[in-house]
Amino acid sequence: MRDLKRKFGDRFIDDPAFLSLYSREASFEEASAKPLGVVFPTSEEEVLWLVRWAYETETPIFSQGSATSLSGNTVVTRPGIVVSFERMNKIVEVNPTDSYAVVQPGLRLEELNVELSRYGVFFPVDPGSVRSATVGGAIANGAGGMRGAKYGTMRDWVLGLRAVTGRGDLLEMGCRTLKCRNGYDLVRLFVGSEGTLGLVTEAVLRIAPMPESAAAVLAYYDSLETLVEDVVRVRSARIWPLFAEFLGPAESKEVGLEERYTLFLGVDVNRGAERDMLGRLRGIVRGAVAEEAVGLDRSMELLEPRRKLFSAQVALMQRQLGSEGLLIIEDIVVPVSKLPEAVRRVVELANRMEIPLSLGGHVGDGNLHPTTWFRKGDLEGARRAKAFIEGIGKIAIGLGGSVSAEHGIGTLKRDLLKMELTPTAIEYMKALKSVFDPKGILNPGKIL
Amino acid sequence: MRDLKRKFGDRFIDDPAFLSLYSREASFEEASAKPLGVVFPTSEEEVLWLVRWAYETETPIFSQGSATSLSGNTVVTRPGIVVSFERMNKIVEVNPTDSYAVVQPGLRLEELNVELSRYGVFFPVDPGSVRSATVGGAIANGAGGMRGAKYGTMRDWVLGLRAVTGRGDLLEMGCRTLKCRNGYDLVRLFVGSEGTLGLVTEAVLRIAPMPESAAAVLAYYDSLETLVEDVVRVRSARIWPLFAEFLGPAESKEVGLEERYTLFLGVDVNRGAERDMLGRLRGIVRGAVAEEAVGLDRSMELLEPRRKLFSAQVALMQRQLGSEGLLIIEDIVVPVSKLPEAVRRVVELANRMEIPLSLGGHVGDGNLHPTTWFRKGDLEGARRAKAFIEGIGKIAIGLGGSVSAEHGIGTLKRDLLKMELTPTAIEYMKALKSVFDPKGILNPGKIL
């Protein structure tokens, strides 16, 4: 540790009270070990030095953005060093002409978009935690979000990376152009690798022109089937929504809406085509249209109640458990047409297990976020929550889906991942991990 | 070979006259060895058997779609077996509701789109060779094309894969949903791997709703700078073109247009917004607008002269060399803003080297296809062509671009790849190759 103190000065901290702040994340997965210290690098050179030191000393490294991950992706599993990218948060270059921005990993997605909005462009990946999530964390976790139905996830928006691998090598990957075919696609291997292959020190992100305008509706449904069917009908009409989100009845009520299923449906349109689009949506949507919006800003505002899902769930939980509750926001994905069946099975499972359930998600890409909670320290509650997570993971697999859409595997879903993938796929992933991190020092205990 | 005959019957062919048809491709890269035979598998089981046989006997395998590749990606470099996927060309499933199609690798992209058009959906990747290019070839080469500025390349449109690795393992990768986070992203490692990591036996492709409508203009310019600037101006006006293509003066003339730089600019719009968009494009575009189109079909038709670039180049070449010419269609990419400078330097290089040059490309994503030719058997011509390819690759690197945008590395650009990438990146790529193909039997001599 003396080496670290000498190198990083007051940017190395080993005060135990402070350390506890950096050993946990937004999920209920708890650290299974105490970190030895937290380091705040300010340059790529420092990251290189640190990983080489860790490689020599075989010290585990846990890289961290803002720790909003929900699957144990950042929790400390062994005595090691937490690397916080808080101080590497600069925007290096914004190039709207060439559709890219170069940024450091600690930059918050929202800060990036504030800067980009000056140029009429934006970065479309929009996770629920967008206000605090960092670029590096979003890359590590392959983040998605509210605009995923139209714009996809991080893998679609990272053009190039600089990263330090677990061998202490600086790896330059990808390019600054929208297309490049320069050997194997290392960039997308890093996206979603949860800090297990390398530490990203700089990213080239693709940026997009802001939609010209939009139209949106908020509609109530008594049946989730009809709601999902309507989203499919919209797409059949050759309309590709910008967002298609839903809330369950209890959640809708909690955010100030009617106690029914709520659909939030937004479509980007050409300037001047808003009214026509609204008319068409009214013709397709069979739910009770309660609100309409015209223009991009107004359409995005209409989505605000949906963004309150997290606070609503906290409120629902607190009403039952006071401040003693632990919230578990889960993440599965199924083909869109299987969404009603998935919801039926998830509800049935929660009822059978007698655990609380709150529902919301992204209809446009089949991504469901079943949420439950239990009292802190309630071991039986924790056990049942884990069993529930396993159960809904199996439901997703059974319906041709996946155990995670955008939260990743972390410590929480390693067993589920083994159920979804073949043993062969797992073997190849382990071999890839060994290429980048032969000593297993990077975020050990995650994914595999 | 007796094993192969027994297993594949008349779907194993070793007649030398026939073999020569399967040992070359659309590029001028020549086979440096004769294949031992061609195999036409009809099932995944047969592909598995074949690769396991090749692994045991250490026999090289060269997989092939329709051999339209342009960088030596499919040429035979050692005595080995060519695997043609011609007979694995089925559409397994089209699921417009869930936005995917499951297909076999030998299916032609155009056939896929004919089928998809019945459902009002399409597969957006649209390489120049779309009429003959296969799904498997497009995956292997990470194909792009005319709609790349809006829709990206193959890496953005492959959701899941089944493939047989060089160890003879069946690997299932990815998912059927628009998002999934199930471990490392093996799918995109395979996209663009040019048959060096495994043989794809089935692909799950993402499909998109067809644009509702479109508007397009064809405009002439005396200066390429102004043409490129106008595309940038269009994007600054928050218009994200569906296509933005150009032809050089000689090529424009050859396809029946004026002898000036031609811009083909199409924008997808909402139904009813076509006229307004045309008006806006007219306001932005400073070139001489010679043609306008309204509606998706008409807008795509306006692009037809651009699609004739290949035949135009063949005609230009034949006028100089008769039927003795060899055409070399090159592929570099630079940031869009650097396109005029790239063209200036490429033209200057061709003039200095006194070699013919024809120019066209994708303005929307900075992808240039400089084309040259020489007489078959003219060793000095071939040498100069190779020097030219190296020269324009260096120009691309010097302007912050890449030595290939969508044609890949193959045998042709291995040295250039080493100039673009760091030695560290090359080392990691070699290590990845070893994971999937430790004996080096899959498409040897390519990429690395």
From TrEMBL, chains A, B:
Enzyme nomenclature, EC number: 1.1.2.4
Residues annotated as domain FAD-binding PCMH-type: 31-210
PROSITE patterns referenced in this protein's UniProt entry, alphabetically: FAD_PCMH
GO molecular function, one term: D-lactate dehydrogenase (cytochrome) activity
Family, per entry: Belongs to the FAD-binding oxidoreductase/transferase type 4 family.
InterPro entries hit by this protein: FAD-bd_oxidored_4_C (IPR004113), FAD-bd_PCMH (IPR016166), FAD-bd_PCMH-like_sf (IPR036318), FAD-bd_PCMH_sub2 (IPR016169), FAD-linked_Oxase-like_C (IPR016164), Oxid_FAD_bind_N (IPR006094), Vanillyl_alc_oxidase_C-sub2 (IPR016171)
UniProt KW keywords: FAD, Flavoprotein, Oxidoreductase, Transit peptide
Descriptive protein name: D-lactate dehydrogenase (cytochrome)
Cofactors: FAD
Species this chain originates from: Thermoproteus uzoniensis (strain 768-20)
Biological process according to GO: lactate catabolic process
